[in-house]
Amino acid sequence: MKFSVVKHGVKPKRDKIAEKIVQKFIEHGHEMASPENNIRFVLNLIDVEAPKFFRRRSQSIFVFSIVTLENPEKDLRSICYTTLVRSLSNMVLCAVPSNSHDNGYEIYFTTPETGFYHYPFDPEYVYQQIMPIAGSHFAMGNVLTTDLPSRYWKTSPVVEKLKKFGKELDKLGVLPSPFPLREFLSEEDIQHIYELFEMKGLSWGNLSARESIPELGETTFWMSARGVNKAKISDIGKDILLVKGFDFEQGKALVSVPPDHDPKARVSVDTVEHSLLYRTYPDIGAIVHVHAWLEDVLYTRQIYPCGTRELGEAVVDLFRQTDNPSRTAVGLKNHGLTITGPSLEDIFDRISGKLLLEVPMIS
Question: What is the pLDDT of residue 156?
Answer without folding.
Answer: 97
